[in-house]
Amino acid sequence: MAYLHTNSKGTKYYLNSKEITLRGSGKTQKIFYFSRDERNNTGIDMPDGYQVVESKKTGLPVLRKS
Q1: What are the distances in angstroms from CA 18 to CA 11, 28, 36, 48, 59?
Q2: How far apart are CA 47 and CA 25, in angstroms?
């Protein structure tokens, strides 16, 4: 099951991750993002060394290194 975060406005967000290929160098990089729906193939638990913070304007969650 994916990590679930409920923001200050009461909206639920699920943490997801996927590997992408960078256009310029061709290297792969792991990205983290939040979605409102739970996705089976990309949902993950909270990675070590990260914390969730909210945007003050929009309330959207963002993952930040601790």
Answers
A1: 23, 10, 16, 16, 23
A2: 26
Cα–Cα distance measured from residue 10 to residue 13, given in angstroms and rounded to the nearest whole number? 10
pLDDT for 10-52, tens place per residue? 999 999 999 999 999 999 999 999 999 998 888 999 999 999 9
- Check: CB of residue 60 under 8 Å from CB of residue 7: yes
d(CA 16, CA 5): 12
Domain boundaries, the chain: 4-65
The whole-angstrom separation of Cα 38 and Cα 41 is 9
